[in-house]
Design brief:
- It holds the Pfam family FeS_assembly_P.
- It comes from Cupriavidus basilensis OR16.
- The protein is built from five helices and seven strands, in the order H-H-H-E-E-H-E-H-E-E-E-E.
Length: about 180
């Protein structure tokens, strides 16, 4: 076998690593995996041949990133995938557009309203210019997140930040239940 044949062979370790990492839950929202949230960006070989797991935090100050890196290491170690390293990449910045449809459904079932619409970045992580401008204030009923308990859009925001910085706290005015809303960004 020559070097060209080696390059053409599929890397079964990479495929196995993707399968193992499918099951790594987000530590703050355990019903969704880091892949479903879009935190898991890539599994690849580094220049030295070591398996690299590329992750991007939901925001640069996310306190769960060290736990996520530890959980990734434990999952790969348990599967006998060695050596490996976790690489955190901040650019392009994570966006809720990277969340899968399954993640949005699971958030709703868990009692967290998923982000509405998209941020215009599509599902493919690409670099783009970020322009800072004030967000439009939600006034119309159709701009409010639906209550994950009863489905009503008759909701109000109680606080800009909920149980974590990436969520806002809302209350349904029909069933009166409070809920987190995963903010789109």
């Amino acid at each position: 076998m020559n070097a060209a044949d080696t390059l053409m062979e599929p890397d079964t370790t990479l495929a196995h690593a993707w399968t193992v990492l499918e099951a790594v839950p987000d530590p703050e929202i355990p019903v969704v995996s880091i892949r479903e949230l879009g935190i898991l960006r890539d599994v690849r070989r580094g220049a030295d041949g070591t398996l690299e797991v590329v992750i991007t935090p939901t925001y640069s100050g996310c306190p769960a990133m060290s736990q996520i890196a530890e959980d990734i290491g434990q999952a790969l170690n348990a599967a006998g995938i060695l050596p490996h390293r976790v690489v955190t990449v901040l650019a392009p910045a994570w966006t809720t557009d990277w969340m899968t449809t399954e993640a949005r459904d699971k958030l709703r079932q868990y009692g967290i309203a998923p982000p509405m619409g998209n941020c215009g970045s599509g599902h493919t992580p690409t670099e783009k210019t970020i322009r800072f401008m004030p967000r439009a204030v939600m006034h119309a009923t159709h701009d409010r997140p639906a209550c994950p308990q009863c489905g009503s859009v008759h909701t109000e925001r109680l606080a800009q930040f909920g149980s974590t910085a990436c969520k806002a706290l809302y209350r349904c005015l029909d069933c009166r239940e409070p809920f987190d809303y995963f903010k789109p960004y």
